[in-house]
Structure formats: structure tokens, C-alpha cells
Amino acid sequence: MEAIWILLTLFVLIMLAGVYGVVRGVRAAKRGIDRTVHQARATVEETRLRARQLAQPGAAGELAQLRLSLRGSMRATGQALQAAAPQDRSLSESLGLFQRLSTHALDLEADLKRLEQEPDRARLAALLPEMRERTQRITHSADSLRWAVQERAHRMAHDDLDSLGREIEMEAGALRHWTAVEPDEPPTAPEAGSRPEPGAGVRSGSEAGREPEPPRPSLGARPNTEPQAWQKPWQKSRRPENTA
Predict the structure, then answer these.
(1) pLDDT score recorded for residue 230
(2) Under 8 Å between Cβ of 156 and 88
């Protein structure tokens, strides 16, 4: 009975894991589709704005130009921050500032889009300087943030490359330690084919053929008067006879 309950539990867990995997896959696919649709819409919108900028001179063409400038600057800054944020955690505040700037950019985008439908050309001409100033301020802030992020990334890469170069030079010096002369290194044997010093062979030959001289007794040393083992008994000194 217990084996049946264990099998049922395993079956339920497998089913739940399968359902969870399917749900995650569907959500990921939906996010990918939404991203693709958003990019396609943005591409179509920018193509339409470029066509209007060229085909409609005047206020309508300038509105299209302002929208293109705003969208391009914000998109480039967002991509730069997203690329640098995983490697640099100090950009969290920059991301927060960009989110606040994106809110103003979206409001300006909506205002510019509404002005495109404005039938009163006089009102459009009166509001255009304000739209131009807002666009310049937002794009300038976005560009400044993007340039700062790019310069920071380049500086960090340059510093890391300098540090890596110093470490490699130290390691290369450590690997070449055998080129330094060690003070306690024993003298090396003469190489084969090296010429001996003059007179070295003559001295060695004469010294080899000469027998060692017996040691000479030193001055002041007492002679040994004890009989040696090879002396005969009658050669020993006679004892004085008793005259008594």
C-alpha cells in the first residue's frame, strides 16, 4: 500500500513539474512575441516619421524630426544602461534616473503625436518652440547619461587592462627565475672540450709518481726506548748484577 502512495506522489510531482515548465515556456514565448511586435511597431513608426519628415516640410516635418530625435536618444541610452548594468552595480541610481527621464519622454512623445493631428496651423506654430525646447532638454540629459556610462565602461576596461598587464609582467619575471645567478650555486664542472690550464698536467703527473715522505720527528721529542716486538731477548739492555 505504501508503494502505491509513493508512486502516486511521484506521478503528481512529475505532472506539476511538467505543468510548471509548460507555463514558463508559454510566458517566455509570449514575452518574446510581445518584444518582437513592439520592435516591429517601433520600426514601422520610425519609417513613417522619416517619410513625413521628407515629404512634409514645415511644422509637420519638424514634429516628425523631434519625435525621431527623442526616440533615438532614449533608445540608445536605454540599451547602453542595460548592457553596462550587469557588470557595474553602481549604475542602479543611473537606471532610476533614466526611468524618471523616460516618463517625461513618454509624455513629450504623446504631446508631439497629438500635435500631428492639430488642424490649426497657427496654434501648431505657437506650440512648436516649447516642444522643441522640451525635446532638446530630454535628449541632452539622455545623451549625457549615455556618454557618462560609455566613458565609465571604457575607463574600467582600461584600468583592468593595465592591472592585467602588470600581473602578467610579474608572472613572466617569476617564470624566468632561472636567468638570475644564485649566490649559493655550486661551481659547475668544466665543459667537455675546454682547454686545461698550462702546467696542471705536469704538476699532477709529478705528484702522482712521487712517494710520500715519512714524517720527520719533531725537535724536542723524546726517543722511544721501549723494546720493539722484533728485537731479540738478548738484545735487551742487561740488568745490573747484584753484588751483594
Answers:
(1) 41
(2) yes
